[in-house]
Amino acid sequence: MLTSSMRPQVTSLRQLLWAFALVACVIRPTASHATSNGALRPTVTTTTAAHSSSTSSSSARHWPSLKLHFTLKRSSMQLFGQPEFDVYANPIVSHDGTRVYYDGYVDFVEETARTRYFMVDGVAYATRTELDETGRVVARMTHCLPVSVLPPFEEIMTALNDVTVASTARRNGDKITCAAGHLFEVTFQGLEMEMVICASGAAGLRAYASDIDIEVTFLKYRVKVPVPKVTAGSMGECRRAVKATDMTPVAAALLTGAPVPDSEERGEGSSLPVTLSSTTCTCKSDPRPCLFIHGLGNDYAEDELQDSMPDYWGNLTEHAPCCTEFKYMVWNSVVVGWNNDTQQQIMCDLATSVAKSSSSTKIADTIVVTHSMGGLALAGAIASGKCALANSSSWVAMSAPMSGSMGSDFALEACNGEHTYFMKVIGNLTSQCSMLNATKSLLYQGGEFANKAMNDAYEAAQEAYRDNVFAAMCSNSYAGLFSRYLPVYWLLGSTLPHKTAENDGLVEFNSCTGGLPAEHFGDHYKDRFYRTQLNHADTTFYFGDGLFNSAQKPAKWFECLL
């Protein structure tokens, strides 16, 4: 259930905000300039930020601005296709030097556009600037970002205040060296993530997690952070989401380059070795070919299976250790709904052609991966006896609308002129009016427009789903990973007449579970039944993974699943 008009160019807002949060405080962005080769340079003032020789006497002038250089170890985590980027952060410190938050910014350039993410006075902003071929600005828009997409800063601050000394540290079997500094472990309890910090005083520090390296440099000059001007009429409520936090002496030392307090304050006597988990997973089952079946919104069909479908699915070549090959079914899901008998038979015929061990009606030795209405169509085909899954096959479903979607009910009303102009915009944004044939097949079960035959078909499909699906990904939040169209999902999630606020913008969590017990779902990528904080588009793997939130790693979930 994903239309081309809703296909954003990917990056993750939460990833960027997590990057800010790792400074240990609240960040906000500042202006920056692009050099002739596209490199970004911060705007700075000439006021020197001297390092403090004692955390107890530190004040605002003793807290330096920071440059954080991020290196992302997994391709699914890249931002705007970049495996490395810099975040600049400027501390805002209380008079006694014990409470702090950060302003900060990061810039990304992609072809003819530049996107800048800010945190100013605890408010998150994004500015997108469109450029022509000469580099001249042709359009610019700034809007505030909702609190729901911000990282839990309090958890991060608490973690930095509770660092413990590590005797040694290893990642992927390799020793993390910290010859000239102190080695610490940080555990983000709410995020189920560990990080090792090598603090080298005024020389800076390096932080290591399973999938990320962060090099922190204390800047000689303070970063200048201007307050962005929000574009009139833009979406997003400008709310302050963060505030200054009390810092322990150790945390203050880490963020200023001051000497670390003595071993008694640091609890050195209880130091233990730390081992960071592996950044990759291997196949735990039998490697098999993988068949991908898309959802609503594709306006063309292919008679044969394709080797790629990059306009819908993300690149999983590095994140699918069990897939011996990739095959994609392409069907016209604008004209044809999930409950079309002919289409279900075509789906079965194509699915049984993937592996030689399959029969004409049984799908064998195949990993079947479905998104949205594709999952409902497969369930319908199984329920009607057109084909079946052999025990040697595994069905992995994402965001399946097993009870339909209130978005379809609303689209039907909106396209018939039953809503105000503002509400019609939602239908136009999602292109639902141009695909009413398929949309009508997703009318909400038991709702105003679903008839008895449709309700019965849903029940049969749900039973087939529960009996056959090996793993499922369902979301209870529409905050998701960030793209230029993310405001559409915020609008859909908050204004469509969903039965519950737990939805991905288009499909409710309870609809996606198809009657599977909610308690079977966990919010970690290692959970077979995965309760995520992703919007409906994110679960196509198109937008990769979030940096830190374990409930926002769809690609890693798939990599470690089988």
UniProtKB/TrEMBL annotation:
User: Signal sequence span per UniProt?
Assistant: 1-34
Q: Which SUPFAM superfamilies match?
A: alpha/beta-Hydrolases
The keyword Signal is assigned to this record:
yes
Keyword field: Signal
Please indicate which superkingdom the organism of origin belongs to.
Eukaryota
UniProt protein name: GPI inositol-deacylase
The organism encoding this protein is Hyaloperonospora brassicae (Brassica downy mildew)
